[in-house]
Amino acid sequence: MKIFIDSADLDEINQAYGWGVADGITTNPSLLKKAVDKRIASGNKLDLETYIKDILKTAKNTPVSLEVTEITAGRMIEQGKKIFDMFNPVANNVNIKIPVNPAFKNEDETHFDGIEAVRKLSAEGIPVNCTLVFTPEQALLAAKAGAKYISPFAGRVDDYLRKSCGMKFDKSDYYPAAGTEKSGKVIEDNGIVSGIDLVSQCVEIIEQYGFESEIIAASLRNPRQSREAALAGAHIATLPLQVIKDMLKHHKTYEGMKAFTADIVKEYVELK
Ligand code: E4P
User: What count of Cα atoms within 13 Å lies in the side-chain half-sphere of residue 250?
Assistant: First the structure.
């Protein structure tokens, strides 16, 4: 499984690439806002174009998702092309993130604009990461429309399921891949019992029919969920830096380090 870093923060991105564990980057408007706010709060001037170009150079031969902010097909396509033309020449590694469905509510008329934008940009050779996927059927349609990447949001599914049954939780708390029961009833969202279940069903459909799209397990919040994404066959997991850090930790590793360090013989250290 490839690991992308889910961040627009250049310090975090540099860290993950420095460790040799990052195979790509995903950004979104909220991650970009967080990075911009941090830069400005630290008293640094921000030239966003240069900043994004620095991210692309850091990622060198690995893909970087930049998201559109428009919500109608025509404008998403126009903005997607503009972003691609502006930034792809830097390191030839840009893909355009398009929401599978940019509507805000059922009454809106933009339900099909996302899939149209995925289709048109993909047909023009611009790689698309189809985002905000919450059902396997959205993933199927995104694959048919030609999306290079498809991003099911596992953590947000878990949040929704936990909230719907009144569970108290922290965002980073583990939620079982097999789901939970309350009063003898499985907590589910139209047959999806957990975020990892969503990832797993998306992977199964993509593999079963030989689509070329890659599933990015997104919105992952803890190491065990990342492990389960790998076991579910996700092609990629996009992870915040903190989750990558947490994946390295184990109390028995600390204990082992203490014991080995206590046993060091000075002759070994002084070997010439
Ligand atoms: C995916 O590409 C998104 O940027 C991201 O994983 C969303 O994660 P969140 O639900 O933690 O905001």
Answer: 8
**Residue of 235, 213, 237 whose CA lies nearest to 224:** 237
Pocket test for ligand 1, best of 28, 148, 244 (most atoms within 8 A of CB): 28
* Cβ–Cβ < 8 Å for 142, 163: no
* DSSP β-ladder status, 185-186 and 181-182: antiparallel
CATH level 2 (architecture), domain 2-269: Alpha-Beta Barrel (3.20)
Domain boundaries, the chain: 2-269
CA of 251 to the centre of ligand 1 (A): 28
pLDDT digits (tens), the chain, 272 positions: 999 999 999 999 999 999 999 999 999 999 999 999 999 999 988 999 999 999 999 999 999 999 999 999 999 999 999 999 999 999 999 999 999 999 999 999 999 999 999 999 999 999 999 999 999 999 999 999 999 999 999 999 999 999 999 999 999 999 999 999 999 999 999 999 999 999 999 999 999 999 999 999 999 999 999 999 999 999 999 999 999 999 999 999 999 999 999 999 999 999 99
Point out the catalytic residue in the list 2, 57, 97, 182. 97
Give, in order, the Cα–Cα distances in Å from 134 to each of 234, 243, 268: 15, 22, 56
Q: Output the residue whose Cα is nearest ligand 1's atom 7.
A: 219
Judge if the beta carbon of residue 122 lies within 6 A of ligand 1. Answer: no
Centre of ligand 1 to C-alpha 153, Å, is: 7
Active site residue 97: yes
